[in-house]
Amino acid sequence: MLLIDGKKISTDIKDELKVRVEELKSKGIEITLAVIQVGNDPASSVYVGNKKKACAYIGINSLAYELEESTTQEELLELIAKLNADSKVNGILVQLPLPSHINEKSIINAIDPMKDVDGFHPVSVGNLSIGQPGFLSCTPAGIVQLLKRSGVEIAGKECVVIGRSNIVGKPISLLMLRENATVTIAHSKTKDLKEVAKRADILIVAVGKPMFINSEYVKEGAVVIDVGIHRKEDGKLCGDVDFEDVKEHVSAITPVPGGVGPMTIAMLMKNCVDSIEIAEANNA
Length: 284
Hints:
Layout: E1 2-3, H1 6-26, E2 32-38, H2 42-58, E3 61-67, H3 73-85, E4 91-94, H4 104-110, H5 122-130, H6 138-149, E5 158-162, H7 169-178, E6 182-186, H8 193-197, E7 202-205, E8 222-226, E9 230-231, E10 237-238, H9 243-246, E11 250-253, H10 261-283
Parallel strand pairs: 1-11, 2-3, 2-4, 5-6, 5-7, 7-8, 8-11
Antiparallel strand pairs: 9-10
Helix pairs in contact: 1-10, 2-10, 6-7, 6-10
């Protein structure tokens, strides 16, 4: 059984990006990511801190906007408009979730698609669905890299994605199709979920329920990617997959923590570096 090491693979990607950033700097090109956080949600603060560290590690500039919880939607939209217009800013990231008085959809839609390094804007999603150059959602893009860099053959494989969120389920389905997998999307209304899941050569689980998937859902020798992350009562982290129950039946599996998680920030950094090429492709 191969334990897919997201920490190592994400570090490899960041090291590759570091080299690309140095090459860009030698041509006088700097990359800047603007990160906006509204309020001080503790989990969001940790994520924002990790993003700043990753920027520093690979050599891109980061601008941090830490706004009060009471910031209005209008004030946030004004800041986004200012950053959209700033030619020195290559990427804009608004840390979610936002306070309840701010409409997330309006905020995501306000970001210039050429600076949408989270890959959430409808234009980015549209580009993904028709195979145009554009920003990929970070977690799904990270999953594809985990598979490829772990030597997992994707083309021709039966892939089942459990979960249909806009952030993971839908985009990873499109990316796996792009890699020539045969893709089934399963969800809470799927009948005979165990039977559907057991068809999978590659099972990607993003249901948001702790340890929901056990060995009864997994085909012998399958590759299992666990996107979930939850804190148990004893303080330890777990995923959507019952790791201990499943691990004896799989050929490869991601642990939680240390699997998919580190990849999200690595792919965000890749989107920031790719922003130069994406801008050029769209201006050509």
